[in-house]
Amino acid sequence: MTEHLQSNVSQDLVWEICRSNNAFLVKRKSGGGSHFSRDPLNLMNKHSRKYAGFVNNKAVGIHAAEKGGVSLTTKKTKHLNRPAANKNEVSWSGQKSGPKIYRGIVNYTAKQGYRADLRQEAVARASAIRQSQKPKKEDPESKLRGSKAKKAEEKAT
Question: Which residue intervals make up region (Disordered) (predicted)?
Fold first, then answer.
């Protein structure tokens, strides 16, 4: 049996039904009543049809992996009706350089036929994750200048 089951419901209809109430929706009263999304397959965390991973058949998600790495999660179109089997995950370790990871994300999504409009957002999210995983440099100790420096030098001698 090589046939793939397609969803019986269109993506647009699913969005229209679920857009005002779903498990991933976060409504804020502050900030003009902004709506955000906690969907793991939503690259921008915006509550919109374009980025909603649970609605789109081909969705992409980026999240942090262990030891400074980045993980790419994609939704398989082959198993739309089987939630346990409809995700594929690819990870890059923290040992790889940033450009190699970004090139890998672009190549993987392009070769698998994922949406080209999400590639730039995926690379931007991976870059932000990599930046957040770097250890913070401590601020250098401020040097005394002017008259305070002269007074400190006189006390030392």
Answer: 73-99, 124-157
d(CA 113, CA 55): 17
Give the residues across from 89 on adjacent strands: 73
Per-residue tokens: 29:
């009263």
Question: Residue 110 to residues 5, 11, 119, 156: CA-CA distances in angstroms?
Answer: 23, 22, 8, 65
pLDDT 10s per residue in the chain (157 long)?
444 556 678 889 999 999 999 999 999 888 888 999 999 999 999 999 999 999 988 899 999 998 889 999 999 888 777 888 889 999 998 888 889 999 999 999 999 888 899 999 999 999 999 999 988 889 888 888 899 888 888 888 7
Q: Which amino acid is at 71?
A: S
Say how far apart CA 16 and CA 35 lie, in whole Å.
Answer: 15
pTM: 0.77
Within 10 angstroms of residue 121's Cβ, the number of other Cβ atoms is 17
CA 59 to centroid of chain Cα atoms:
12
Are 105 and 72 within 8 A, CB to CB?
yes
